[in-house]
Design a protein that fits this description.
The chain has a domain of 110 residues: LemA-like domain (de novo design (two linked rop proteins)). The protein has eight helices and no strands. Helix 2 packs antiparallel against helix 6.
């Protein structure tokens, strides 16, 4: 009888050690940490926007549409609370991603406008802000990549057997990840016709 009890206890302990609970906790913390860095870098970019808009406005005041678009995009980004709960809600995550893409697009248009103003391009504070923005965009890319890898590892642990049984029992869900807005468009190879350039 005692041997049977020990055998049952040994089986239960082995099942618990392989249930994945600790992997979920570790993975969840890695995702939260990576998400915090993503939010940190996006906030850094948002903080640069008012100074950048102000500097461009000094040289290109009549470019009101572009300046208004950047300001509105920044306000849209600021209206979304980037909490850890956001990464549990695919819809909210998609809205966050869409708002950030809108700000990226508006900033790109602003920098294109700046190309038309040689005095602005020569301004030291504008060049410094532009360099900071470029550095921040690189940091955002790195932070997003780390987040993507963390979510991938977490989602694999939630979806693979036998961990998926524990995930279902305890309510663990896969987490949303970043995606490419125009995935279908970029999956088609561009057509290049060198014959058209011949005279």
């Amino acid at each position: 009888m005692r041997i049977r009890i020990l055998a049952v206890v040994a089986v239960l302990v082995s099942l618990l050690s392989g249930c994945g609970y600790n992997a979920f906790q570790t993975g969840d913390e890695a995702v939260k940490s990576a998400w915090s860095e993503v939010v940190n870098q996006y906030q850094r970019r948002a903080d640069l926007v008012p100074n950048l808009v102000s500097t461009v406005q000094g040289y290109a005041a009549h470019e009101k549409d572009v300046l208004t678009q950047v300001t509105a995009a920044r306000a849209q980004v600021g209206s979304i609370a980037a909490t850890p709960e956001l990464i549990k809600d695919p819809e909210a995550f998609a809205k966050f991603q869409q708002a950030q893409a809108g700000l990226s697009s508006a900033l790109s248009r602003l920098l294109v406008v700046a190309e038309n103003y040689p005095n602005l391009k020569a301004d030291a504070s504008f060049r410094d802000l532009q360099a900071q923005l470029e550095g921040t965009e690189n940091r955002i890319t790195v932070a997003r990549n780390r987040y993507i890898k963390s979510v991938e590892a977490y989602n694999v642990s939630v979806r693979t057997f036998p961990n998926n049984l524990t995930a279902m029992a305890l309510g663990y869900q896969v987490k949303p990840n970043f995606s490419v807005d125009n995935e279908k468009a970029i999956s088609v190879a561009p057509k290049v016709d060198f014959g058209a350039t011949k005279k």
